[in-house]
From TrEMBL:
It comes from Pollutimonas bauzanensis. Residues 36-173 form the Ferritin/DPS domain. GO terms for molecular function: DNA binding; ferric iron binding; oxidoreductase activity, acting on metal ions. Signal peptide: none annotated. This is Starvation-inducible DNA-binding protein. CDD domains: DPS (cd01043).
Length: 173
């Protein structure tokens, strides 16, 4: 609960100078959705960084397979970050953009050292599932206020992260 109060400050509404935003979603509802999207951005950035780190540092018999798979995933994740941040801005709020903000907002815990290839896969499964859970929670808020563009963005992210989790999990069987 205390974390939610901090989020309101982190996703502070842009200045009321200039034209007000009138897109059919109230200020309060836009703020709620922007807060949820900020969590999504933080989880997505944390997962991106972890995936890129693992791409650089993976070793073992599956090196080439994992190196390529991780590159495909982190490249897609990188491109999605901009879409999420731009949606927060379209709702009239600033997007979080610092490591400190991401650390506070993210539900993903990064490893302290370089894990084994199998542990990397397990961590990325959990990371993709965490992003999917965050997207699902944000979707409920967006859908509840008839924010179709955000709901559409989150549906696409859910599809990608659930698919990534499945593909990574398949390597562990």
């Amino acid at each position: 609960m205390a974390k939610a109060a901090k989020l309101d400050n982190k996703t502070a509404k842009m200045s009321d100078k200039g034209l007000p935003i009138d897109i059919g979603i109230s200020d309060k509802d836009r703020s709620t959705v922007a807060t949820e999207l900020s969590k999504m951005l933080a989880d997505s950035y944390t997962l991106y960084l972890m995936t890129h780190n693992f791409h650089w540092n993976v070793t073992g018999p599956l090196f080439n397979t994992l190196h390529q798979m991780f590159m495909t995933q982190y490249t897609e994740e990188w491109q999605a970050l901009d879409l999420i941040a731009e949606r927060i801005r379209a709702l009239g709020h600033y997007a979080p953009g610092t490591y400190a903000q991401y650390a506070e907002l993210s539900s993903i815990t990064e490893p302290a050292s370089v894990p084994s290839a199998e542990e990397m896969i397990q961590l990325l499964v959990k990371g993709n599932e965490a992003v999917a859970k965050t997207a699902r929670a944000a979707f409920k808020k967006a859908d509840g206020v008839d924010d179709q563009p955000t709901a559409d963005l989150l549906t696409q992210r859910l599809d990608i992260h659930e698919k990534n989790a499945w593909m990574l999990r398949s390597l562990l069987q």
